[in-house]
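haha ok so turns out i had the wrong file open the whole time. this is the CORRECT one, sorry everyone. sequence first:
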Amino acid sequence: MTLQIDTLAYTNRLRQLPSEHKLLFAIALLIITYCSRVPIQLLITVWLGIWTVIYARIPAPIYFRLLFITIGFWLTSLPAFVVSGVGLSNVSLVQPDVWQGVTWGNYYLYLSLHGIQQAVALAARAIASTACIYFIILTVPFTEILDVLRRVGCPPLLTELLLLLYRFIFVLLRTASEIWTAQQSRGGYRTWRLWMKSLGLLVGQLLRRTLENYRQVSQTLASRGFTGDFRVWHSRRYKPSRRYCLEALFGCAVLVALTGWQYVVGV
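then structure:
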């Protein structure tokens, strides 16, 4: 999946737009998401879906599969928000907050109306924020993001660490895939006991090979006269689009106005 995301970042239909424009657009929507409420957050999610799937031509199955990851994490936290419980002697105190409930021993378990509202608000904010992040990683190559960070004054040490971490993600995935395939071909996951043993061996081998690869990279850089500064070439042949700029500015202005209106009327 990571390799596919990186490929899409280099081949999407918005590739020719300046990276700064796409980053500012996504960051502005992220700020609006943080300040707005559920209806505006859902509107941001739909609008970014149009930008990502229709304008950038990112395949819809891949995009929605990535969004479902966020939904999956939300579902794991759902019971903590929705389900509450009190002693039978205190049922009358929580009755206004009860949607459905059941008696279990000396306790009363119920679905909280306030908890449901919190869960819905959390889901809307999480999905909208994730859509902003996905718009960046699916339309802007990681090296260009680092280039923008360098030009705005981000410390070189931080950008170089990010570049190395990004590179080692691919090394880690490739190594894990090779070890997993070798173990499966030898029947290493036939039973639960073998599964646990093979998984432990995979983690150990993964750590050893990753450290070995890091040592090889360090020796390679030293042999080529590495001075502590990575240089990545960028053609920067961007073609700003007046239509996309106007749509982004107008849309953000409308969202800011709707957010302010929500606070005024107390929706």
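DSSP finds ten helices and three strands in the chain.
again sry for the mixup
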